[in-house]
């Protein structure tokens, strides 16, 4: 490991995944041999601010001139830590609703108004698109979560997992 690695990464802050066509015993032996010299300094886990941007950096509009022709409106939000809600996946629920393209969806409405082709457009009337997006979010907040929507997302995820095609071994990077 380099200097940065020794300064910030320690076994108590790290995880390791190993993938190979060797037996589990062989993989384990290889990992132990390769990493036994890494000393555990028992550093405290890093604490990160719950709001890394602060109030002053929010509500910022950034304009840029793309190298290639691109007409795109991107909205980014700072979402509070919700690790304790990991199993109910609130971000997936919201993502499912915002990205949904069926009748009555945000995407469908913006397409009807000819403001978007996909849910990443809106060059000429971006302020109107933002207004509609935030009106939609306000409606979702007012109505609260719906069990049937949660179950729909859960069922889609289960089917994707169950019928997922076997991928490349690179998958381990994503774990």
UniProtKB/TrEMBL annotation:
The keyword Iron-sulfur does not apply. Keywords: Metal-binding. It comes from Rotaria sordida. Transmembrane segments: none annotated. The keyword Metal-binding applies. This is Peptidase M16 C-terminal domain-containing protein. Residues 10-156 form the Peptidase M16 C-terminal domain. PANTHER family: INSULIN-DEGRADING ENZYME-RELATED (PTHR43690:SF18), NARDILYSIN (PTHR43690). Gene3D superfamilies: Metalloenzyme, LuxS/M16 peptidase-like (3.30.830.10). GO terms for molecular function: metal ion binding. The lineage of its organism: Eukaryota, Metazoa, Spiralia, Gnathifera, Rotifera.
